[in-house]
Amino acid sequence: QLQLVESGGGLVQPGGSLRLSCAASLFPLNDYAIGWFRQAPGKEREGISCMSNIDGTTYYTDSVKGRFTMSRDNAKNTVYLQMNSLKPEDTAVYYCHADPGDYWGLGTLVTVSS
């Protein structure tokens, strides 16, 4: 069974940057479409970006477009989410997801605050 582990979260000031990692074990990540989701306090989980396993095409929701970038390192079996120009409303637990199979990591907390 594919296992996903997110890391890289933390406390950052508005306007700052973080890079989240989603490391996979047991199976190659490039066999899966990967998505990043987040859940803010008191809100539902929302999808914010995804990457196709066919051609690597990426998609972003409007709220993060132009600020967040997904990338993949097949040698490290890891997907990244580079987050720039962070805003307080980006505060959430961030999860990576792999499909097929509907696999989830446990999440990493990002807090954007001064």
User: Which segments are poorly predicted (pLDDT under 50) over 5 or more consecutive residues?
Assistant: none
Number of helices: 0
How much of the polypeptide forms β-strand, as a percent range?
A: over 45%
Following the backbone from N to C, one meets helices and strands in this order, namely EEEEEEEEEEE
Number of strands: 11
Binned, the helix content reads under 10%
What value does the Rg take, in angstroms?
13 Å
> What is the general shape?
globular
Main β sheet profile: 7 strands, mixed
Structural class: mainly beta
Distance between the termini: 40 Å
| Overall pLDDT level | 96
Question: Would you kindly provide a written description of the structure presented here, covering whatever features stand out?
Answer:
The structure is a single chain. The chain has 114 residues and is mainly beta. It contains no helices and eleven strands. The protein has strands at 3-7, 10-12, 18-25, 33-39, 46-51, 58-60, 68-73, 78-83, 92-99, 103-104, 108-112. The strands form two sheets. Strands 2, 4, 5, 6, 9, 10 and 11 form a seven-stranded mixed β-sheet that branches. A four-stranded antiparallel β-sheet has the order 1-3-8-7, with no helix packed on it. It is globular. The model has no long low-confidence stretch (mean pLDDT 96).
Write a brief caption for the model.
The protein has 114 residues and is mainly β. It contains no helices and eleven strands.
Descriptive terms for the model:
4-stranded antiparallel β-sheet; mainly beta; single chain; 7-stranded mixed β-sheet; globular
